[in-house]
Amino acid sequence: KKYVYFFGKGMTEGSADMKALLGGKGANLADMTSIGLPVPPGFTITTEACAYFDQHKGGYPEGLRDEVIANLHKLEKLMGAKLGDKENPLLVSVRSGAAQSMPGMMDTVLNLGLNPDSLQALIKKTGNERFAWDSYRRFIQMFGDVVMGVPHAEFERVLQSVKDENGKKFDTELDVENLKEVIKRYKIVYKKFTGEEFPVDPEYQLFKTIDAVFNSWNNERAIKYRLMNDIRGLLGTAVNVQCMVFGNMGETSGTGVAFTRDPSSGENKFFGEYLMNAQGEDVVAGIRTPQTIDTLKNVNPEVYAQLCEIRETLEKHYHDMQDLEFTIQEGKLYMLQTRNGKRTIFSWLRSQVEMVEEGLISKETAVERVPAQEFNKLFAPILDNKIIRDLNCKVATTGLNASPGGACGQIYFTAKAAEEAAAEGKDVILVREETSPEDIGGMAVSRGVVTCRGGMTSHAAVVARGMGCPCVSGCGEIHVDEIKKTLTVNGVMLSEGDYMAIDGFTGAVYTQKIPVKPSEIMQVLDGTMRESESLLFQNYKKFMSYVNEIKTMGVRTNADTPKDAHHAVLLGAEGIGLCRTEHMFFGGNRILSMRKMILADNIGAREQALSELLPMQRGDFYNIFKELNGLPVTIRLLDPPLHEFLPNDSTTRHETALQLGISVEEIAQKISKLHEFNPMLGFRGCRLAVIYPEILAMQVRAIIEAAIQAKREGYDVKPEIMIPLVGIYKEFNFCRDKAIEVINKVFDEQGLKVAYKIGTMIEVPRAAITADEIAKTAEFFSFGTNDLTQMTCGFSRDDAASFLGHYVNDPDKQFYEYDPFATIDFDGVGKLVKMAAGLGRSVRPDIKLGICGEHGGDPKTIAFCQEVGLNYVSCSPFRVPIARLAAAQAAI
Ligand code: ADP
Ligand code: MG
Ligand code: MG
% helix / strand / coil in the chain, to the nearest 5? Predict the structure, then answer.
């Protein structure tokens, strides 16, 4: 088996489509080499080798070591140099890189091959003494940290003290003597922590580092990152061993990162940062504040022009925005990495729409790529500009607009403190000197992130953009004292817990509370902003037109109020898939009439109470029909157990007793009579209608009277009456007959008819199994996947938390791939859905099928629904855009 793939001009073995095997970095290094870009040669050890290493506790598959040595010799021959040689040394980097990019999560070591002998040779060869010592000190630090686990801070402390002792501010100011001193002390630190001398044998260095990179696949932050980003099923990381090029050879050398378009806004302009006389991570780590890419024009116009050309080449080649790394060695440009750029959802939207218009990609490609899970961040709030003007809020300082969105909250200075405060329900703004991969947990719970150092491509910026968390980076005027838990900014001091507001669109930071308001898209949708004023909205509109062209399933919403329905329709809902009537019974004197109805001793008293409820329900339905003019509305009859409507504390019981003119004892008695051990399997759903048909009669009457009223006023009404919790067709038929009886009566009374449908929810496993019998009379099925999951898996939704997390997340268990209440359990519950759909269609080919559980807004479930051939999914209003996009993606 082949475990190593070479890349170098005319000798490249890998290609772009080998990402699973070579990792994204390795595959694209090979690919860039093949299309003639200047890439330092090297070789890639496959992810399969990493998987083997993992399973065999650090063992190599047979032949791997020899294959690495053979490739090393090939590289040495090509370069005319030898790894760590004392005459003509070759130096390499050893880089991680998995199939899906996990920026900064795994490890990389640069300048490998240096030892006292090769160092001297490097000095002789380059005539650049400072550069050689600088490279050596970097190598010791990286090898010590990455391979041997020497705390990074120990090295930083040494570096800082040598700088302080010599009155130097930046790393670049250290001269040869200073660097020698640093290295002397580094070696002492190294020995203290490892008990060994710093290794001199280049081959030993190489294999130790390869092992460390393999091991970094399973370091804590990499595991956390994969979990958070739902990255599954990868073999491991590949290892890239690549010839070094040096950005730290002086002022004609440098290193940088760039995006072919703006990763924050998506604008089609070259975007990036670089540092002269710097190496590797200096730009990303925020060691010095980097220069913006357009200033490179003045520093080295040829290299700048070449980079601009490469930018175009890469976009044309990959048909997507690229995130690239480059290094300039004494005026010569080298490409070190390219990958599809991580970007905000705003940038996704704009870049994909513009690429369609530029003819670079198809509409399908654009739709397929935009991450559905993040789509609702487009609708996330922004800082309220009007309040900023009215209150004359002063910008305390301005940093870089690293990740868009407005945020306001209380400040915390460590990831841990942020996590604790967020757990208490506070809105958190995380303020850090700079962030590191250890901070991702704290960033994930924060409303916004602020850093003092670091550019647009710094860790904080990249991660925050990935999370859709507003971020302002590089606020040089903010000084944080982590120990005292305070910060100062231009004379203002804030303590932990004080308020701060940030604007990730502009980079403005405010040291006060500023409310946030709806996003631009929402403002245009509800008419408070003009379409022509919002480029974002225009792009959104274009993109959604692609979505609508492509998708075949309908997307409805679960809405109980005209307001929710209105909102959902603005977001593109094509009807209501689930209108829960029980929520309409709360509030005001409605709940009182409801309680009267429940507590009634006889049918007369119950009908009296129901007649009070009738006009209220009719009013609700009437307003919903008006709002949904022309779109179908599925209304579910009363579903929850009745005791949910009764007062459960003594004060409300007293009140209720008073209002109803009965004794508290009587109420208490009734309540205890209604008590159930398993209310979710108890007296609820259609069982209520079977025992108290007068409840059903009232609701059906309210629906039909409302529909007729709306129709009279010129609205187009499409009521669909849905009977819940049916298990056997006889239940359904009983309810259906009663409903039709009422409907015909209302038609007679009103002298006007409306078209309607009567169908059922499929949420009891028995109903799914006997769906053919039910479909004889039911005109539609709506899969209520919450209850269906609960009853099929036997997991109580309210009690499963104690073990279900383990079933899903524990690495040694993972019995369920996803939480079955969030993503449908394809093989179990999904199988029932498929079966019921088939049975239903077998007796009624045109039966309408939909899903209305929580799952209806989950992209993975939506893909499943497409496969089963459902007519529509229904989800909560704010997930409607996600569901539309996911439905289009499922149709491609
Ligand atoms: P990550 O995946 O965390 O970005 P990389 O493997 O890309 O890690 O490397 C870290 C840094 O080192 C990057 O800035 C990269 O450009 C630089 N680097 C990697 N290999 C070389 C090399 N052969 N010559 C010069 N710089 C390199
Ligand atoms: Mg890195
Ligand atoms: Mg990189």
Answer: 50, 15, 35
The low-confidence residues of the chain, meaning pLDDT below 50, are: none
Residue 883 belongs to a domain: yes
- Return the pLDDT at 783: 97
Residue 801 maps to which CATH number?
3.20.20.60
Residues 50, 243, 393, 459: which is the catalytic one? 459
Measured CA to CA, the distance from residue 266 to residue 348 in angstroms comes to 6
258 forms beta bridges with: 272, 324
Nearest Cα to 760, choosing from 781, 731, 776, 788?
781
CA distance 872 to 886: 12
- 8 Å CB contact between 431 and 487: yes
* pLDDT for res 286: 64
The ligand 1 atom nearest the CA atom of 108: 6
Q: How far is the CA of 237 from the centre of ligand 3 (A)?
A: 13
Q: Which protein residue has the closest C-alpha to ligand 1 atom 20?
A: 93
Tokens 């757990």 correspond to 423
Reported ipTM = 0.96
In a domain, 302, yes or no: yes
* b/e 127-144 (16+ beta carbons within 10 angstroms → b): ebbbbbbbbbbbbbbbbb
Question: What are the CA-CA distances from residue 817 to residues 745, 786, 796, 827 (Å)?
Answer: 51, 17, 18, 11
- 281 and 234 in a common domain: no
Residue 214 and residue 104 in contact, taking contact as beta carbons nearer than 8 Å: no
Q: Work out the number of other CB atoms within 10 angstroms of the CB of residue 262.
A: 21
Q: How many domains, the chain?
A: 4
Tell me, yes or no, whether 327 and 402 share the same domain: no
- 568 CB burial (10 A radius; 0-12, 13-18, 19+): buried
Q: How far is CA 743 from CA 333, 687, 697, in A?
A: 79, 20, 9
φ, ψ (nearest 5 deg) of residue 59: -85, 150
> Measuring CA to CA, how many Å separate 665 from each of 662, 673, 844?
8, 12, 52
Same domain? 604 vs 709? yes
| Triad 714, 716, 721: Cα angle to 5° | 130
656: Cβ–Cβ under 8 A, 6 or more apart, which residues?
A: 592, 595, 647, 667
pLDDT digits (tens, 9 = 90+) for 657-674: 888 888 888 888 888 888
Q: DSSP label at 358?
A: T
Amino acid at 540: Y
3-state SS class at 297: helix
397 and 467 fall within a common domain: yes
Are residues 90 and 189 located together in one domain of the fold? yes
875 is catalytic: no
Residue-level pLDDT at 220: 85
In short, whether 244's Cβ falls inside 6 Å of ligand 1 is: yes
Substitution candidate for ligand 1 out of 110, 253, 342 with most atoms within 8 A of CB: 110
Domain finish residue from 340, 355, 371: 340
- Whether residue 785 is annotated as binding a ligand: the answer is yes
640, 695 Cβ separation under 8 angstroms: no
Which of residues 211, 243, 275 is at a domain's end?
A: 243
CA distances from 353 to 73, 360, 375, 483, 536 (A): 48, 10, 15, 47, 11
Instruction: Give yes or no: 471 in active site.
Output: no
For residue 121, CA distances in Å to 113, 146, 279 come to 12, 26, 20
Terminal-residue alpha carbon distance, the chain: 36
DSSP string covering 766-815: HHHHTHHHHHTT-SEEEE-HHHHHHHHHT--TTTTHHHHHHHHH-TTT--
Q: Are 510 and 559 in the same domain?
A: no
Question: Could you tell me if the CB of 242 is within 6 A of ligand 1?
Answer: yes
Structural domain including 440 reads 380-517
In a domain, 66, yes or no: no
Residues 237 and 262 reside in one and the same domain: no
pTM: predicted TM-score of the whole model, two decimal places:
0.85
166 and 124 in a single domain? The answer is yes
Inside any domain, residue 60: no
Q: Residue 686: phi, psi to the nearest 5? A: -65, -15
